[in-house]
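User: What would this chain look like folded?
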Amino acid sequence: MPTNPDPAPISEQIDLVNDRASIHHAESRVLDALNVFDYPKAARFAIRLAIEEAVTNAFKHGHKGLPRETPVRLDFVVAVDRAVIAVEDQGPGFNPSDVPDPTLDENLERPCGRGLMLIRAYMSALTFNPSGNRVEMTFIRATEP
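Assistant: Here's the prediction, encoded as structure tokens.
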């Protein structure tokens, strides 16, 4: 845990374009905030992977048919006990329950659903807005003994 017992949460809103440098910049901003609170390496890996999957899905699926320069919004709040990251695209959204379970035998060779499965595996909570174009991911930090 950080040496300062009550540091203020760090939050930011970032508009991303579908460009590796833009996405890397946003991931770096979140990782910098996690470092301020001394999040362990495994937590930083899990959160970075979840961001990568959510942003990839937003551009690949949410922005399908939209101009390449249409931005995706990434909001984050990092505090000593949790990190909350939201990714919102400008597409029509989707129903998460319509995404096939990639672990079922009939879906093993289908490429869809793996990103959501990874996010669910690494994050403490995953919620979607009613229209399905915004995902909010929460990582709750384990308390130290």
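The chain has one domain: 10-140. If you want, I can go into more detail on any region.
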